[in-house]
From TrEMBL:
Annotated family: Belongs to the UPF0047 family.
Pfam family, one: YjbQ
Regions crossing the membrane: none
InterPro entries reported for this sequence: UPF0047_YjbQ-like, YjbQ-like_sf
Name listed for the protein in its UniProt record: Secondary thiamine-phosphate synthase enzyme YjbQ
Amino acid sequence: MYLYEHQISTKGAQQMSKVTNIVREDIEKSGVKDGIAVVYSPHTTAGFTINENADPDVVHDMLKGYEKAFPTTADFYRHAEGNSHAHMKTTLVGPSQTLIISGGRIVFGIWQDLYFCDFDGPRNRRFYVKILEG
């Protein structure tokens, strides 16, 4: 069992950052050849998703779609911090993802990558990678 902690700084109000290589490095350090890696965000306004890596317009479209579904400002929000939209977006993507490790590599489809999604930036964030052998 291996646990790694990472820091990430986001620049925009809403940002999806590719973090696949960070997790790949953790897997390599652990030496685990077959098992699972769980990535987890301890923040209520940031989480993880797996999605397409080939066309950057996909990330753009996803952020625009999230904003349309959960606008940054709405007259019905009551949360005093003013970031209800970020809580809703994070609930949609979720705080974690589970990745399969086989042969020392993440099992992904050809166009997939792992993204850290910050919906309430810019901020300094952290996330964890737990690697289990088995």
